[in-house]
Amino acid sequence: MRKSQAKKLPLAPDGRFNDKMVTRFINNIMWDGKKSTAINAFYDAIDKVSKVTGENGYEIWKRALVNVTPAVEVRSRRIGGATFQIPAEVRADRKISLSMKWLVRFSRERNGRTMADKLSSEIIAAAKGEGAAFKKKEDTHRMAEANKAFSHFKV
Which residues of the chain have pLDDT under 70? Predict the structure, then answer.
């Protein structure tokens, strides 16, 4: 029997937007416990997004997150010696987690001088429905669609 699940620690909202989602996103950007560096990178990226698009950078970031949030994913399940990819709904908490991780990961892989540059360009692309993070979501959905035949195995 497994032990009880660890309790989720409550996050403090960030300083500028007073939003817990921003804090969570900053925690995803952070490397080696350098939170102030991650905060600076995020806020600089939001400012750059505002400057480039002429709209509210925070709203565009939220739209980008929504655009890269997956609804379904495939999960591996071993049945009778064969492994099947079974499409499954994504839990609400995991949806947010995946979208943030994808945005940060594909920002890091982009070309750019600073993390703020990379992040801002990925946010703008995701908000438009382009970019690598959005493509990842589309691929995930396509994979689930292709394996719909195995959905009767449900995880």
Answer: 155
